[in-house]
Specification:
The structure holds two protein chains of two kinds. Chain A is an alpha/beta fold. Helices cover about 35% and strands about 25% of the residues of chain A. Chain A has helices spanning about 1-10, 30-40, 90-95, 120, 160-175, 190-200, 210-225, 245-255, 265-270, 275-280, 280-295, and strands at about 20, 45-50, 65-80, 100-105, 105-110, 130-145, 145-155, 180-185, 205-210, 230-240, 255-260. The longest helix of chain A is centred in the last third of the chain and has 16 residues, at about 210-225. Chain B has a nine-stranded mixed sheet, sandwiched between helices. A two-stranded antiparallel ribbon of chain B has the order 4-5. The longest helix of chain B is centred in the middle third of the chain and has 19 residues, at about 145-165. The chains are: A alpha/beta, B alpha/beta.
Chain lengths: ~300, ~290
């Protein structure tokens, strides 16, 4: 544990602590933990909670607050200016994503495929592909007492979640004073959206279920965190189902097991309605308080 | 040949457990494709033998040749992804941030930047315990071409089905609405939405349904754990009716799903009561619906 503490102090880049809640498998309780933890902590000091699961944002069902503002998220894409274009085809040649295609006398731009690298635009000898903004999602800010809540939301039909995640993190960074704790509800999986959501945080809580699916996907998530050289701990949700393999795994791999949230059908029922478990189920509130204690011991929280 | 794709929007609704049960019921008339390449779990229930494995290459990353580099800094200047770092007197690329656009390589006056193709995962063709083939994959850690790997798994599944004369491809899709899901949906004949009666489950299902509509695909719905909130279950039911989504089944909250998974078994092999009956009826219904659409 001591080495964990030391490495944390060295790693921290600012005095603003950022914690992400992530998991390999979906539906293991990321949103439950993020919202309940943020809500509980905000009774002690100000907290920013950002929902970065922009493909399917759900934290908003559990945090009811006053809406402060809404901000559209744009991405830059090239737009063809037919009058200036001499059809040299350089744009098609430099685009590695097949997003710009010369078809006969026309240049077609496929927004979904464009990564916004600007190569086609800036290397066009005629300036015929200026970059323009294109709406891909939005960020909504809410406030409930000392809990500031941000929701990132990708428009349906858009395939790239990363730009909206990036913007939501930027918003969380700039809008609120340094020193205020940031909690990120990350997307599931192990690919680019989860990397974007976790690469600049100080600590990651991986939440899993004690089942074979949960364990298998947890191992993938652990590999990602190790690759990113991140400090992380594990929380078991629905403790009591399945088997003890996750506990054994934590021990073998020397990963701190920072909490166990008991399996209860009442929890599923409360979750279904958008209720906070910490408010109504004492066993779960205790489990969350224990997680907070452990985060303090690990000096993740002060 | 028909392709049935199972998705959920939200994770943890029971999609994979239900798909694996259908895979057993389909027997050797179907090729199974696990397109949840980010967190592929179906192999834990279906015992694949990994008999055929191949590396999957997709996308490029920039690498700067320090010998050729003249340190002009042009690469750093054009990179929109902050992937080029200047440390002391040399320029390097952070692979995790590089999108592979090759803009830097294009403008480098010394031709010092090489675009290197990335090994982003592995894909497999396996025999599974129902004596049929499954195509599945493992995405490399932190790799970013999951949509392309999904497309590859689907294409290979189609090849296997053609070669072995099978009528059906059963696809386990990924959660969300982003590129891997869009890839999973392309070419589908029928889509099954597995949802749960929670505010989150319903919300996520509506979003993924909107996506399905963009593709003009017909779909059916399974409400898992329907008794967790009967009121929301009814709302989902109404939503299906209004939007011409076939209602396939309601499945009760039942920890037998977890018990079966813990033994590495599908529900069909583990339970000989209510759940198996519901799933058998569902599968019959799905085959009829897929034929009629």
């Amino acid at each position: 544990m001591e080495t964990v503490l030391r490495s944390k102090k060295n790693q921290r880049r600012s005095d603003t602590m950022k914690i992400a809640i992530a998991s390999g498998k979906g539906g293991t309780g990321k949103t439950t933990l993020a919202t309940n933890l943020a809500h509980l902590l905000s009774q002690k000091f100000p907290v920013v909670l950002a929902d970065l699961d922009v493909e399917e944002p759900n934290s908003g069902f559990f945090i009811k607050g006053e809406k402060i503002q809404e901000k559209k998220v744009f991405r830059m894409i090239p737009e063809w200016d037919q009058d200036k274009c001499v059809l040299c085809g350089n744009c098609q040649r430099v685009c590695k994503f097949n997003a710009v295609i010369k078809l006969g006398e026309e240049i077609l731009v496929f927004n979904q495929l464009c990564h916004g690298c600007y190569a086609c635009s800036e290397l066009c000898p005629q300036n015929a592909l200026p970059m323009t903004s294109y709406e891909v999602g939005k960020i909504t800010e809410f406030r409930q007492n000392d809990l500031h809540f941000l929701e990132g939301r990708l428009n349906v039909g858009e395939e790239q979640a990363v730009p909206v995640i990036k913007e939501t993190i930027n918003f969380a960074e700039k809008k609120f004073a340094p020193g205020i704790l940031r909690i990120f509800d990350a997307p599931p999986g192990t690919s680019c959206p989860v990397i974007e959501a976790t690469k600049d945080v100080d600590y990651i809580i991986l939440i899993t279920e004690p089942t074979p699916f949960g364990l298998y996907d947890l191992k993938l998530a652990v590999e990602v965190m190790r690759e990113l050289k991140k400090d992380f701990g594990i929380v078991i949700n629905r403790h009591g189902i399945g088997n003890n393999d996750v506990i054994r795994y934590c021990k073998d791999e020397r990963i701190p097991l920072i909490g166990k949230i008991p399996n209860m059908k009442t929890a599923a029922e409360t979750y279904a309605k958008g209720g906070l478990l910490s408010e109504t189920i004492p066993e779960i509130r205790n489990a969350l308080e224990k997680i907070i204690d452990n985060l303090r011991t690990l000096e993740v929280l002060s | 040949m028909k392709e049935i794709v199972i998705i959920s929007g939200k994770g943890g609704t029971g999609k994979t457990s239900i798909t694996a049960a259908f895979a057993m019921l389909a027997g050797n008339n179907a090729v199974i494709a696990d397109c949840d390449v980010d967190a592929a779990d179906m192999h834990l229930l279906l015992e694949p033998d990994f008999s055929h494995a191949e590396d999957f290459y997709s996308g490029f990353k920039a690498v700067i040749d320090q010998q050729k580099c003249t340190k002009c800094g042009k690469c750093k200047q054009v990179c929109r992804f902050d992937a080029v770092q200047k440390n002391d007197d040399s320029y390097t690329v952070t692979p995790m941030d590089c999108e592979g656009c090759a803009y830097c390589a294009e403008v480098c006056p010394a031709a010092a930047i090489q675009m290197v193709e990335q090994n982003v995962g592995k894909w497999y063709i396996s025999k599974i315990k129902s004596q049929t083939e499954m195509v599945h994959a493992k995405l490399g850690i932190g790799a970013d071409n999951s949509g392309k790997l999904v497309a590859k798994v689907k294409k290979e599944a189609k090849n296997v089905a053609l070669q072995t004369g099978k009528d059906l491809i059963l696809v386990d899709g990924s959660p969300g609405i982003g590129c891997p899901v869009v890839s999973s949906l392309s070419g589908a004949d029928y889509v099954i939405l597995v949802t749960e009666p929670t505010l989150s489950g319903f919300h996520d299902m509506k979003r993924v349904f909107e996506l399905i509509q963009n593709f003009h695909l017909s779909s059916g719905c399974i409400i898992n754990k329907y008794d967790v909130n009967v009121e929301i279950a009814e709302k989902i039911h109404d939503f299906c009716e209004t939007n011409s989504v076939d209602h396939i089944a309601n499945i009760p909250y039942d920890e037998t799903f977890t018990a079966a998974m813990t033994e590495g078994k599908t529900i069909i092999e583990f339970d000989d009561g209510n759940l198996t009956n519901i799933l058998k009826d569902s599968w019959k219904k799905i085959l009829l619906l897929t034929d009629s659409h």
